[in-house]
Structures are given as C-alpha cells and as structure tokens.
Amino acid sequence: MLTGKTINSLLLLLLPIVVQAAPITLPQLMAQFSAVESRRADYAEKQYLAMLEIPLESHGTLTFHAPDILEKISTDGGNSYRIEGEQLQIQQNGEQHQISLNNYPALAAFVASFRATLAGDQQTLQRYYHITLSGVLNDWTLLLEPKQDEIAVIIRTITMHGSYNRVRLIETVERSGDSSQLKLSERNEK
Amino acid sequence: MKNSSITAVILWLLLLSGAVIVTTKTQISTDMSAFLPNSTGPEEQLLLEQLQNGNSNRVLLLAINAKNSVAAARLSSQLATTLRNAPHFTRVRNGELQLGDSIQEPWFRYRYLLKDSDFSVTGLHEALQKRLQELRSLTGLYTKQNLAADPTANFRHLLQQWQGNTTPLRQHGVWFSTDGRALLLAETRAAGFDLDAQQDNLAVIRNAFATLHQHDSAQLVISGAPAIAVASRETIRSEARLATLTASLAVVLILLLAYRSWRLLLLSALPLAGAMLTALATTTLLFGTVHGITIAFGITLLGIAIDYPIHLFSHLTVGESPARSLAGIWKTLRLGVASTAIGFISLLFTRFDGLIQLGSFTVSGLLAAALITRYLLPPLLPSPWQGKHYSRLPTRSRLISHISLPLTTVLMLLSLAYLSSSDRPLWESDITALSPIPESVRQQDRLLRANLPVSDVNQMLLLQADDVESLLQTQERLKPIMQSWVADGLIGGYTLLADRLPSMARQHQRQAALPTTAQLKQRLNQAEQGLPFRSAAFSPFISAVSQSRDLPPLTLEQIQNTSLGQSLTCLLFKSDTAWWGIIPIAAASDTAILQQNIAATGEKMRYIELRGITDRMLTQFRDTALQNLAWGGMAILLLLGWSSHNLHQLTRIILPLSATISVTVALLHLLGEQLTLFHLTSLLLVIGIGIDYGLFFSRTDKPSEQGKTAHALRVCAISTATVFAILALSRLPILHAIGMTVVLGVVAAYWFARICGVQYNAKEDSTATADQVD
Questions:
Q1: Residues of chain A found within 8 Å of residue B77, distances taken between Cβ atoms
Q2: How far apart are the C-alpha atoms of B318 and B387, rounded to whole Å?
Q3: pTM for this structure?
Q4: A71 DSSP β-pair partners
Q5: Looking at beta carbons, which residues of chain B come within 8 Å of A110?
Q6: What is the rounded CA–CA span in Å between residue B499 and residue B114?
Q7: ipTM above 0.90?
Q8: Closest Cα partner for B587 from B453, B438, B437, B431?
Q9: How far apart are CA B571 and CA B413, in angstroms?
C-alpha cells in the first residue's frame, strides 16, 4: 500500500535524478556544504615541482569541523598541521610552531579555498577569489582565481572537482609552474 | 593712579609680555642626562650616551594574561599581526615561526661569509633531505622561494640565530613567561626618549588589544623603558598638578585669613607670577631648552617669593604710605634676597647642566620677585594705607629668652652628635631611590626581561680595541669562553657583535673554505643521489657560492643604514683613543667569580654594572654640590658680616641658621630619610628662609615694628610649612624629599630665629601693648 509518506520518500529519491541535469549554482553548492558539520577524508597528494624529476607523494587523513577547524595528519612521515581560525600549528623538526595566517596572505588564501568551501562560506571565498562554477550537481567544477596581486604572484589557479557535497580532487597551479593534486575519499561520519 | 604707579605698571606689563613671548617658545626637555654630571670618565660618558640612544630603550615588553594558555597564545598572535601592520613599530616578535625569509641586503648576499656552512657531500645531502621534507608541508609555499639559491638555508638559519641566544619558553608556538603569560617584544620606530611618540605607541597597543579581547577577561601588561618613562611622566604630572592645586588653595586661604583683603590676596600673586615667568624666560634665553625637572623643582623653590609681599603687607601702617613702609624693611629684605640668591648662585658653578639651569632659574626668579615687590606693589596700594593694621607681638617666656642662645647651641650640638654617631648612612647612594617608579613596576619589568631574549642593559662587558677589526677578532676568540660561562651558569646569555658581523679575517677564512665551482658541482651531484632533485635545479646556488668567493668582506659601513644593522651599531662606539665593544650579558650570578674569569681571559675587558656607574655619579654629584654649598655658605657669611652692625647681631643670625640646618638634617635622618640631591637643594631654600627669618627677627628692637615683623614671619612660616607639608605627602620620592626637608626646615628656622631674635625693649612695652590692635 502506498502511503503518503512512501510516496514522498520515493519522490525524494528521484529528486537527484531530476535535478542533476540542471546546471548547479554557487548558492546551491554552498548550501550543500554548510549542511555538513564535520567530515573526515583520506587523502593522497602529488606535488609536481619544477625542481624535482618525479612528483612528491604523501598520504594521510584530513578532518574538518565547521566552521573553521582543519586538520591534516600525514601517515607517511610528511608534515601534519592543524588550523583553527587564523592560527596554523605545524610540527617542524620535532618542534611545534604557531603561525598566524594573517601574516601570510597567500597561505591564508590557500587555506580559505578549501576551508571556506567545506564550510559553505561563499563570502570568504569571494573575498579571495574570482569564482567560476560549472557542471551539474553530481559533477561540478569550481575554478578559483586570486583577486589580490600579492596572492596571485604565488597562486595561479585552484580547481576543485566534486559531486554533491563532496570534494573529490583539488588541483593547485602555482605561478612558478609547480602544481599539486590532492585526491580525497571521504568516509561516512556517523 | 599716580605717575609712578603708571610707569611701574607699564614696565611690569612690558616685562610680562616679553617673558610671555619668550616662554611660548620654551622647549621642555625630559632627557635625564641633563641631571647626570658631564665629568665622569670619557668611556663611561660615551657608554651612557650609547645606551641612551641604544635599541634597548625603544623596546616594549608585552605580557598577555588570559583564561588559559590557548587563549593567551591566540591573543599574542593576533596582537602581533596588528602591530606588525602598524607603522609605529619596526619589529614585533612573539616567538612565532617566520616564514619566507624576506631577502634583506646586504645580509643575503653575504650569507656564506656570515656563517659556517657544511658543503661536504653528506652535509649537502642532509640539507637537501630537509628541504624536501619542507616542500611537502603547507609552508613549502614560502620555503621554496629561496630553495634554488640557498638549499643549505644559511640565510634562514642566520635570521634564526639573530633572534637571540636566550630562547624563551614556548607554548602553542609562541613565547610564554614562566608564570604562564604570553610574551611579545615590540621595537618602536620612535626613539625611547620621545615620550609623546611613545605615549601614542602605548595607546596603539592598548587599542589593538582592546578590540581583540572584547569577550573575555584577558589582561595586557606593557613594560620596558619607554612604557616606564611614559608612566612616570604621567605620575609626575598628576602628582604635581594635585600638589600645586591643593598648595595654592591652602596659601589663598592662609592669606585671606591673615589679611582679610581680596586686594592684598591678588597683589600677593604678582611677584610670584612675575618670578616664574621671568625665570622661565631667562632660562629659555640662556639654554634654549628648559628641563622639565628644572621647571617643576624651580617653581617649588620659587615658592619663597610669596614671602616678599607678605613682609610688605604686614608692615603696612595706617596713615603711612606703602612706599614708606617698604622703605623701612627694604634693607633687611634686600639682604635676605641677596643671601638666598647666593645660595642658588652656587649651583651655577657645578658641572651639571640641570643644576646650572636650576640655579639660573631660581636666581632670576627671586630677583624678579624682589624687584616687583619693591617697585610695583607699593604704587598699586592705596597711599596712605587705609586698610587694616597687622601686628602681633611675639609672646616669649622670660626663661627661654634668657637661655635662647645656649639652648640653640645645645640643640645644634646634640643633632651633630646624633648624626656623627649613627650607623645608618646619611646619604642615599642608590639612584633608583629618586625614581618616581614604584618598586613593583620595576620588579615586573625585571621579571618579563628575565623571560625574554632581551639583555639586561644593566650588566655588560666593555671591551677595548684599537680598531673595529681587532675588536671583532677578540670577540670571536672570546665566544667559546663565553659559551662555557653560560654552560657553567656564570652568565645567563650574551650578545656578541661578531656573531652578526664577523671579522674580516673570519670572513676571509670562510671564503677560502668555500669549494670551487667545479668542486661544488661535483659534490652536489653526489649529494643528490637518491633524491628527486633535477640536476640543474641548484645553479643559482652554485653561482652564489662562486660570487661569495670574490666578495670584499662585509664592513660596518655597509650595514650601518640597514634596519638590522642599526641595532648592531649600538654594540660599539669610538672614543678619541680606542674602539669599545659593548657585550650585554644577562643575569651574571656571581660577579666576583666573573671578574676572575674575565681577568683570566687576558683581554682588555672589564665588567660594568650600570647601576654602579650611576651610583658613583650620584656620590660625585653630592661631593661637588657640597663643595659648592660650602663656598656659597662662605659668601653668605661674608655678606652678612659686612652688612651687620656688630658681632652680636651676626651671632643672632648665624647661630639659629646653623642650628636649623643641623636639626633639620638630624630630624630627616631620624625619620628614616636618606639624603639625595633634592634634599640637598631643598636645604638651600631652608637656608634662604632661615637667613630671612633671622634678619627680620633681629631687625629692630622697637616693639611696634616687632609686632608687624612677627605677624609677617608668622604668615610666611605658616604658608610655607603648609605648602611643603602638602608636598611631603606626595607619593613621588622627589616631591616627598623636597616637602619633608622644607617643612622641617621652616619650622626649625622659625622657632630658632624667634627665640634668638632681638628682645623688645621693655621701656617701650606700653606702646607695644597699645599697638596690638588685634
């Protein structure tokens, strides 16, 4: 017997199929992200540097807690860090260091690209970047280009690929030609 | 108004406007060095100058207290960011890691001559491994900027080394004190003695902090030389304002009670106002700038000028012209003024700019007050005098009258005996006793300083050399020795100029040790084995090393105008005969053992404790001042002797005066005071007052006149004692010292002068009683 509730559920299930063909808007994307309080993902990073013959690889987990906590823990001896608000804490040569993002605009912009997206914070994102969103709900691409010169001298573009409220891949291209790819596979938090 | 009065008023107005014009241009200086003698050893003099202009005087110490260390660390970092963006500060440090070694020339160019480098294959390999690790980090964005040109990170290590060799405690990546407060250092752009600018700097910091911690109960403490100087100036201002206000009110009240005339009250202000304006104008004309202490102290000393109109007013007689009344006392008054002035003139012959200023300030002020009383006041009073008649015959017990001279002598001798038998030192040799800064504030500063990489400027080693090169070479020889001293706990730390600017010899040595281009290429090739770096990646490094081999060594001249270099140039100075290096050291524990160790080095080096120098200066000052006072005393004696009628009269002035001084000093000592330069100079005022009282009390034996004189002196003594009693209550050591000295002195002077004064003639007793209208 089809109760009203079941019909509603069925309709809800069908909804993505209906809308995924329509182009996604930035407010839509941001709303999706802001609905998630915290997430955890395994990452695999490849850095292609002009000075290096082969890419530099590292693995680990990334954790995000809304609105502004971002933690990266490397499992293969790479560097780990924790960012909360404007404070960046890194372990370097066995010592804990604290850095204020305010002092390093490019670093702040770099962190914002990822963190503001996860938080669904369109305002912050727009403060740092010209934003171009393309694709559909289950396969979108967010292209970020720095607005400020002091950031643009270091970062050329940051491109995020994802579907629904998940980021799959972040590609960063630096002005120097160096680039990096960060692949994310999110775990379900329950 | 009569002609003479119009002339007098016009003259006074002219003088006044001239003085006002000059004083509007008066520059008030606050530089304490004016009160330091300019006659110490040349090195010590230069050292003091060096330290006054030095960097340590422009460093502010900040401590943040918050609900927990995380909150404190966050505030520290936020505050540092705000301040770094403010133009007021040249450098703000809080222990945070500095990324991206912004290239600073000429330092970057000389990176391989300023520091030892390990260019062996293993050394290079390890360095490259570290860089690779850094590239993987979030901050790699910055560290890779200099990677190709400086893979060994020499420049970054150089910058880190310059942060200081005493590394403070760190929590959450920022500096913390042992008592759990986040610490910051802010170097101000303005000089340490520019107190107005420093006051702005403090406001900038407080405002920045206030906007950061609106939601919690965090606290910020600001210390350091500039902050303390600003705070003490504020204390001085507010205390002086309060004292001036209460004292003025008290005098107004006393004068109103004594004369019950608004007119006389207003006129009594003329000599005082004229005295201050003239004094300020004269000092400005003579010196260009006037020291703040000269003004504050000088105005206090000029307070005696209120006595001059009092003498005139009390001697006014109904039916007699004021000019005539004045003529009756003018000889005595003139002598009093002259002898007081001589006391202050003795200050002109000291070698302290501050005291010479003070001397000219007071002498010119006193003369102006006397002249205004003589020439301006009488024409402004109704003639003949129609107002009240003031007279009060002193009541003296017959017994005291008979034994006054022996009693005074005995009291004087008792005081002297007490002073010579006491174990407690009479003089204060600790200069901080004069400081308006409370001990708690100083202790706070010491505590913060101990936790931060700032050397205590109090302790240092002074190294002598023929030229800069040998100075630097000696420091390089000393470095391992000093390191062992630190290891042994003999000293807490040190700052060596040679650590930042190596000697030419050392730079040549490093150049010689640099590999040739071919060698370096080959070693790099080997070092890169197993690492993913491209073979051509480090060509900027190879050419930099090759250039370093041919660089002329870095010299003092090249760095003098760089921001880093400026903080270094205060570590050395030049006298006529030699170069001197200052090596600030921290927390020398056992100076005797340190002295032995210094001697054992065989270098031309000695340990200097700044406090020791200033204390010695204070002693020297005291000796000079005493000497000058003695000469002044002789001059006063001569003047009095020349003007007195006979030896008997002279005794009646000199004896109470001597008794006044000895009893005052004894009482001060008994009350736990130790004498400083301010007590000493206040004694000059007491001497002036004492002479004045002595002269007036022994002026005449006519009871009618004696009654008026007694009234005058009573008003003088009460007003002076009240004013200085108010000062004695001040928290400021200087005002307290002045107040105590003068209040005790004026009471003693009045009492001794009164009992030793001339007895009134019994034959005129009846007239005297008739005279006593009040």
A1: 86-87, 98, 100
A2: 7
A3: 0.64
A4: A63, A82
A5: 138, 141
A6: 8
A7: no
A8: B453
A9: 54
